[in-house]
UniProtKB/TrEMBL annotation:
One of its GO terms (molecular function) is transaminase activity. Gene3D superfamilies: Aspartate Aminotransferase, domain 1, Type I PLP-dependent aspartate aminotransferase-like (Major domain). NCBIfam families: PRK07777.1 (NF005855). The keyword Nucleotide-binding does not apply. The keyword Electron transport does not apply. It comes from Dietzia aerolata. This is Pyridoxal phosphate-dependent aminotransferase. PANTHER family: FI04487P. Its cofactor is pyridoxal 5'-phosphate.
C-alpha cells in the first residue's frame, strides 16, 4: 500500500464483519438490511438475465434507469436533470464519491469534510492527492448540528469541494436547512462545489424532512447529488448508485468512472429502473418500518445502560458506552463479537482532527428484522 493510503488499509466494516462471521455474532456493525427489496425488482433482474441483457450497458448507465432517476429526482426535489448529460449510473454511491473527487479535485486542492464522516471520503481524497480539511458536528440540546465556526475555518481560496452527507452516517443526524444554508453560502463565496451524499434520503423519521443542498439558491449548478439503490431498495450487494448534477461536473465524474469500472451490471440496472418506476410505495413504506426498528433497538440499548442520541434518519444510532464502564470504545467494539455475539463499529475511523471529541462513541445498526434485534437485545443484556 502506498503511504498516502496506508491509514486506510482495511475498512472498519471489513474488520468488524469478519469478526462477526468468525464469532457467529449478530452484525449490527456494517449497515445492510437482512430482508430483500421488492419482489418485482428481483423478478425484473431474473427476467433481464434470462432475456439476454448480459453485455455492457451504455457508458453512463442503462438509458431507462437514467430516465427513471431523473424523473424520480424531479418529483422529489424539483431539480430538472437531463438523463443523457446530467445523470450517471455508478457502481454504488462509493464509486460516485470516488469519481467525483478523483475527476474534479486536482493535486493539492482542498476538500472540506465534516467529522465524523463516512470513511470513504478521506480515502478518496487521499487517492486524489488532495488536502482534507475538517469541520465538525457538535452535540447541542440532544441533537447533532453543524459547528459553523469550524466550517468557516475549514474553507479557503484553495477549497474545491465540500462533501456533505445528510441523513448522516454514522450519527443518524439529519442536517436542518439552516446548516445546509451555511454550507451553501460558503460554497458560493469560495466558488466550491458540493458533493452531496444522500444515500439515506428516504430514511428520515418522526416527520423530519430530508433537504438536498442542491435545492438551495445557487446550488443546483454547483452540486453533485449522489444516491444509491442499495439503501433505497434493500439491495446493498447490487452496487447500483448514481450521481446527478450539472453536465460539466457529471462529465468530470464520468471521465474518472470510465477508468474505475467502465460500467456496472446491466441486468441489475434494468431491475432498479423497474423498481424506481413501479415501487415508489415500497420505498416510502421502508421509512416507517425502519423507524420502528430504531425504536426497538433504542429501547434495548437504553435498558442496558448506554446513553443514546436519537437517530433522526439512516440505519444507525449513536451510543455512548461510558456508563457501562467502557474506557476504550474502539478496543471494546473489537472484543464485543467474541464476548457477547453482537458487533458494532466505533467512531474512531470516522474522525481525525476532532478525534478526541468522538472516540468514546459507537454506532449500532438497526436495519434488521425484529426477531434479530430481539436476539441482539438478549445478548446485549449480558453487559448489565
Ligand atoms: N455513503 C454513505 C453515507 C453510506 O453509508 C454508504 C454505505 N451504504 C455509501 C456511501 C456507499 O454506498 P454504496 O453501497 O451504494 O456504494
Ligand atoms: N454503508 C454501510 C455502513 O456504513 C456499509 C459500508 C461498507 O461496508 N463499506 O455500514
Amino acid at each position: 500500500t502506498v503511504p498516502r493510503l496506508a491509514p486506510h488499509a482495511t475498512t472498519i466494516f471489513a474488520e468488524v464483519s469478519q469478526l462477526a462471521t468468525r464469532h457467529d455474532a449478530i452484525n449490527l456493525g456494517q449497515g445492510f438490511p437482512d430482508t430483500d427489496g421488492p419482489g418485482s425488482m428481483i423478478e425484473a433482474a431474473v427476467r433481464a438475465l434470462r432475456e439476454g441483457h448480459n453485455q455492457y450497458p451504455p457508458g453512463p448507465g442503462v438509458t431507462e434507469l437514467r430516465h427513471a432517476i431523473a424523473d424520480v429526482e424531479r418529483a422529489s426535489t424539483g431539480l430538472v436533470r437531463d438523463p443523457d448529460s446530467e445523470v450517471l449510473v455508478t457502481v454504488g454511491a462509493t464509486e460516485a464519491i470516488a469519481g467525483a473527487v478523483v475527476g474534479l479535485v486536482d493535486d493539492d486542492d482542498e476538500v472540506v469534510v465534516i467529522e465524523p464522516y463516512y470513511d470513504s471520503y478521506a480515502a478518496t481524497i487521499a487517492m486524489a492527492g488532495a488536502v482534507r480539511n475538517s469541520a465538525r458536528l457538535v452535540l447541542s440540546d440532544g441533537r447533532f448540528r453543524l459547528d459553523v465556526g469550524s466550517l468557516r475555518a475549514a474553507f479557503s481560496p484553495r477549497t474545491r469541494a465540500i462533501i456533505v452527507n445528510t441523513p448522516h452516517n454514522p450519527t443518524g443526524a439529519v442536517l436542518p436547512r439552516e446548516d445546509l444554508e451555511e454550507i451553501a453560502a460558503l460554497c458560493r463565496e469560495f466558488d466550491a462545489i458540493a458533493i452531496s451524499d444522500e444515500v439515506y434520503e428516504h430514511l428520515t423519521f418522526d416527520g423530519i424532512e430530508h433537504i438536498s443542498i442542491a435545492t438551495l439558491p445557487g446550488m443546483a449548478e454547483r452540486t453533485l447529488r449522489i444516491s444509491s439503490a442499495g439503501k433505497m431498495l434493500n439491495c446493498t450487494g447490487w452496487k447500483v448508485g448514481w450521481v446527478t448534477g450539472p453536465a460539466e461536473l457529471v462529465a468530470g465524474v464520468r471521465t474518472a468512472k470510465q477508468y474505475m469500472s467502465f460500467t456496472g451490471a446491466t441486468p441489475l440496472q434494468i431491475a432498479v429502473a423497474h423498481a424506481l418506476r413501479h415501487e415508489q410505495e415500497w420505498i416510502t413504506s421502508l421509512r416507517s418500518g425502519m423507524q420502528d426498528r430504531r425504536d426497538q433497538l433504542a429501547t434495548v440499548l437504553e435498558g442496558v445502560g448506554f446513553d443514546l442520541v436519537v437517530a433522526q434518519g439512516t440505519y444507525f444510532v449513536t451510543a455512548d458506552p461510558r456508563p457501562l464502564g467502557v474506557t476504550d470504545a474502539a478496543a471494546w467494539c473489537l472484543e464485543l463479537p467474541e464476548r457477547i455475539g453482537v458487533a458494532a463499529v466505533p467512531f474512531t475511523p470516522f474522525v481525525d482532527t476532532f478525534a478526541d471529541e468522538w472516540s468514546h462513541l459507537v454506532r449500532f445498526a438497526y436495519c434488521k428484522r425484529p426477531e434479530v434485534l430481539d436476539e441482539a437485545g438478549r445478548r446485549l443484556q449480558s453487559l448489565t
